[in-house]
């Protein structure tokens, strides 16, 4: 049986942007497929704004237990196909109590934080998350912006590489997305190159 482990997964530009105006300023099918493959079958923990950023037809994310953290609830409650929790601590305790599918990879996290920026930071800074201990893995899709086409945003990812307590254990080759693009503020679609990285806590 897999030991409960908590991971975080996000996509970012090379400048660290993960969001703009409550949405992601890109469309990269390869990243969506990777996110689905990585998180399928595991609980996903998110903030209310991340939940609301998904189109209604995609809520809750299928074949995953959706856990939403919101200050609007004072105790756990089930609604809209998700479990709403008042804090990261209660969300983690609940996620860690759920059964792990038998086919789950032995070394993979058994639950995932999927956004937003403040929740990633809180999880990284909390030494003992109930049922899990510290956050143990960060899975990052990085997007390369061609010079002169930097994509602006208002939400940023944690800087994992400067922390010193995580190390890069896997990195895919850079590839150009066939149908993906980065959106600049004027709505222009820019070509996008991507790679996937995995960082584990030392």
Please tell me about this protein's structure.
By secondary structure, the protein is of the alpha/beta class. Helix content is 18%, strand content 31%. It contains four helices and 15 strands. It has helices spanning 29-39, 48-53, 88-97, 117-125; strands at 6-13, 17-19, 26-27, 44-47, 66-69, 77-79, 82-85, 111-113, 137-144, 155-156, 166-171, 175-176, 181-183, 189-190, 193-201. The strands form three sheets. Strands 1, 4, 5, 6, 7, 8, 9, 11, 12 and 15 form a ten-stranded mixed β-sheet that branches. A three-stranded antiparallel β-sheet has the order 3-13-14, with no helix packed on it. The chain starts with 5 loop residues before the first strand and ends with a strand. The mean pLDDT is 94.
Provide keyphrases for this structure.
202 residues; alpha/beta; 10-stranded mixed beta sheet; 3-stranded antiparallel beta sheet; 4 helices; 15 strands; globular
